[in-house]
Amino acid sequence: MSEPVSLTTDRPGQADTPKPPAPGRSRRLTDRRLAVAFIAPALLLLLAMSVFPLLWALYLSFTDYSATRGGPANFVWFGNYTAILTSAQVHLRALTTLVYVVGAVGLQTALGFTIAYLISRRTRGRGLLTTLFLVPMMLSPVVVGLFWRFMLDAQFGVVNSMLGSLGLGQVEWLTRQRTALLSLIVVDTWQWTPFIMLIALAGLTAVPKYLYEAASIDRASEWFRFRTITLPLVWPLLLIAVLFRAIEAFRLFDLVYILTSGGPGVSTETLSFHVYKVAFLGFNTGTASAYGILMVLVVIVLTQLYLRYLNKLKED
Amino acid sequence: MAVSVDEAVSAGPVPKHAPPTRRRSGRGRAIVEVALLTVLAVVMLFPVLWMIETSIKENRDVYAVPAKFFDFDVTLDHYRDVFVSSGLSVSFLNSVIVAGASTVLATVLGVPAAWAYSRFTLKAKKDQLFFILSTRFMPPVVVVIPIFLMYRYIGLIDSALGLILIYTAFNVPFTIWMMKGFVDEVPAEYEDAAMLDGYTRLQAFRKFTLPLLVPGIAATAVFALIFSWNEFVFAIFLTSSDEVRTAPPAIAGLIGGTTVDWGLVAASSVVFALPVLIFAYLVRKHLVAGVTLGAVRR
């Protein structure tokens, strides 16, 4: 019923176009208007909530503004940037972050790919297994952080309890410099191994069966098949997963905040956590903004890399 | 090692014996693989099981050394505490409101945009889409500094609306990317045919494409819901009062004091995580696309 009605109301609108042969053109015009009307609200929100704040941070990064002191912001130009780039503190945090990112993502990739490979070789119970393995990934970092903090507790934590019953000594997981960073890596690995597994599994199951059949007719060895069929076909997807995880690990904050709060000392302070301390505990908003902008630059480089590989994958 | 030996045998000059050898060692290998998988699954799932166990343990068993795996006294007191005495129920309600509202907003803004990106030829479309996705990758700790100042200026600090807006901004890129994939799967010819029948482009979208997109919209919305529900960084910096706080910072606040009631932490974590797991199970088919923010789809 409504269709003919809307049809008639639509006619006058089209009758406004002066010449009859123009409808194609006018439709393209309304298409454009429609596209703008549909896209603009989303883009405006992103401009207001993502781009504008970053531009503001860029402005603040050239000043000595402090959120608590208030007052006018004085331009110090690249003062904040040189201070950060030459600071030994920041270098230490960068190293911690690097160790953390490489350690965690490396472990996740190795474990995740192994699990995916093992699952892909099973014929039964694949769905159930995958579902079970995916649970950690869906949990909030808050839940993960809190719970591992309890499990790694030196006195009544279940991890030490199990080590004790195996006759091994107690480890102060979160309160020793060395083990704290290791714990952080382990917890992150626990949570995100399923991510790599999921994507690797998607790649592995997409490998056409006939390739393996052809290879086994040719009596190709297992390792040869893995190296020449499985790996090249899964690699592009795996690379995307790894890059994605690297970006996420680089900007990680919540797990550090809950699990160790950067301690003991500064042994688990990543760059993200340091920015937080400078901004919200030191209230050096200008310096923190410069720090943040530098982090954003790193993320942009990583993201470009990620998007480039993604694009390549899509075009294939 | 065993593999290479096996291959050497099967490649041997007596092909008649090769098949049984290979099958038997194949079975041995399968057993090893299943055992390995089982061990890995137990390791991955143990913390979750331990969390559930802790949430139903009597307090003295929670802190028992050595840890009690099976012979503990069961209680539901911690769950009662979550909803009655801890004040967490307000935070849970806030979480529902903030996550729900931001998801609805992101869907309303994102779905039409995704459709437009899928259907129309636009200037630098690929660049626009990449730009949109890259806003999602900004480190939250960095974004929160200017957002904090901005909100303080316009009075959105410690308000549900402030959280809803920033969560929407973080979910819109995801919604656009995820939904564009779903729209791409619906042939544009449907709309062309409808337009030949006299419908306008907008009507064709509403009457023909949109109904086909409903499952995709549902899956996308569920992921947006999960992201907002789990979000912590913005929540902790942009809100402070108990009336506005969402569940993640509230649960994290449970460990602030000198003594920590780990039973309560475990119970509230279970209550917090359960809806996520259920929702994630519902959208398991789209998990790969969902967790890569709509970028990878197979």
UniProtKB/TrEMBL annotation, chain A:
One Gene Ontology term of the biological-process aspect is: transmembrane transport
Going by the entry's taxonomy, the superkingdom of the source organism is recorded as Bacteria
Q: State the UniProt keywords alphabetically.
A: Membrane, Sugar transport, Transmembrane, Transmembrane helix, Transport
Q: Please give the residue ranges the record annotates as the region Disordered.
A: 1-27
Q: Domain ABC transmembrane type-1: where? A: 94-306
Query: What Gene Ontology cellular component terms go with this record?
Result: plasma membrane
Decide whether keyword Ligase is in the record: no
Where is this chain compositionally biased, Polar residues type?
1-11
What does the UniProt entry say about where the protein is found? Cell membrane; Membrane
Q: Where is the chain membrane-spanning?
A: 34-59, 98-119, 131-151, 192-212, 224-247, 288-307
The record describes its membrane topology as: Multi-pass membrane protein
A Pfam match: BPD_transp_1
Q: What is its main location?
A: membrane
The family assignment reads:
Belongs to the binding-protein-dependent transport system permease family.
The name of this protein is: Multiple sugar transport system permease protein
- Native source species: Paractinoplanes atraurantiacus
UniProtKB/TrEMBL annotation, chain B:
**What residue ranges are annotated as transmembrane?**
30-52, 92-117, 129-154, 160-179, 208-229, 262-283
The source's superkingdom equals Bacteria
Q: Where in the cell is it found?
A: Cell membrane
Question: Which GO cellular component terms, listed alphabetically, does the Swiss-Prot or TrEMBL entry include?
Answer: plasma membrane
Keywords attached to this entry = Cell membrane, Membrane, Sugar transport, Transmembrane, Transmembrane helix, Transport
Q: Please state the protein's primary subcellular location.
A: membrane
The ABC transmembrane type-1 domain covers which part of the protein?
92-283
Q: Which family does it belong to?
A: Belongs to the binding-protein-dependent transport system permease family.
PANTHER family tied to this protein: ABC TRANSPORTER PERMEASE PROTEIN (PTHR32243:SF52), MALTOSE TRANSPORT SYSTEM PERMEASE-RELATED (PTHR32243)
Protein's name according to its UniProt entry: Multiple sugar transport system permease protein
What is the species of this protein? Paractinoplanes atraurantiacus
